[in-house]
Design a protein that fits this description.
Number of strands: 9
Protein name: Ubiquinone/menaquinone biosynthesis C-methylase UbiE
Domain Methyltransferase: 47-137
CATH topology of the largest domain: Rossmann fold
GO molecular function: methyltransferase activity
Number of helices: 11
Keywords: Methyltransferase, Transferase, Ubiquinone
CATH class of the largest domain: Alpha Beta
Structural class: alpha/beta
Oligomer: single chain
Largest sheet: 7 strands, mixed
InterPro entries: Methyltransf_25 (IPR041698), SAM-dependent_MTases_sf (IPR029063)
């Protein structure tokens, strides 16, 4: 992806690292962890964490025994991730991965598709992930819901602002969100369009997982996440409905996973 001044300025503030470790962002983090721990091949498999940022997921993957290589286009992210135990980090673009064919057991794209506004670039990134993973290996990508800006805008009060409201409704119509807050363009997916992008990248058989469900919009969600017993209940509740098609678009984020076919597979 093209690293614009606006994108660089946003991520240099280290917001993403803290967002997933604090407040209701923890629901996305723990649910991502929950899904990946169920679908990844067993450690010590080799995981390529594309667009992995400062290593918020690479850190626990390494602790779980995985061999993790992180690629990210933001220099400060790479520097910070490289300090994590067991993690190799270097600069890289999701659309042109600097790795050999079939060299990973799993490829994660837990951020790149947000920043590729052109469909051709998103399909190219998914196709690169397919190339980089071994036959039978896992490709897993995160997307932001087409409707999340409207939902989050109401929750946080941004919807009262004319500029944000217009941007959120534009994103709900065509997926492209020029955020008045961050200053950079993001792409928001309809849950069903992800299927076509995976198919065009050579990954036709997918599973979809809504991460937060409706729970990220509950006013007392932080109270649930702060309490270990209630946190277990809310994670179990979302796991029970994570793949219900009619609920996927309510989640702020969705994971889509597919396995690369073995040669000669029908």
């Amino acid at each position: 992806m093209t690293v614009t001044r606006e994108l660089l300025a946003y991520y240099e503030q280290d917001r993403e690292h803290d967002r997933l470790r604090e407040g209701r962002g923890r629901l996305e983090f723990w649910r991502t962890q929950d899904v990946l721990r169920r679908i990844l091949p067993p450690a010590p498999a080799r995981v390529l964490d594309v667009g992995g940022g400062t290593g918020v997921h690479a850190e626990w993957l390494s602790a779980d025994g995985y061999e993790v290589e992180l690629l990210d286009p933001i220099p400060s992210h790479v520097e910070r991730a490289a300090e994590l135990a067991g993690v190799t980090a270097r600069l890289g673009d999701a659309r042109e991965l600097p790795v050999p064919d079939g060299s990973a057991d799993a490829v994660l794209l837990l951020g790149p598709l947000y920043h590729l506004a052109e469909r051709a670039d998103r399909v190219r990134a998914l196709a690169e992930a397919r190339r980089a993973v071994r036959p039978g290996g896992l490709v897993d990508a995160a997307t932001i819901s087409r409707y999340s800006a409207i939902h989050d805008g109401i929750y946080q009060g941004f919807y009262l602002q004319d500029g944000f409201r217009a941007a959120a409704h534009a994103a709900a119509a065509d997926g492209v969100m020029l955020s008045p807050r961050s200053g950079f363009t993001a792409y928001l997916h309809d849950p069903d369009e992800v299927l076509d992008e995976f198919t065009d990248a050579g990954l036709p058989e997918v599973e979809r997982y809504g991460l937060e469900g409706a729970f990220w919009l509950y006013g007392d969600v932080n109270d649930w996440l702060d309490d270990s017993e209630r946190r277990t209940l809310i994670l179990d509740a979302q796991r029970a409905v994570e793949s219900v098609p009619s609920l996927l678009g309510v989640s702020g984020h969705m994971l889509t996973a597919a396995r690369r076919d073995h040669p000669g597979s029908p």
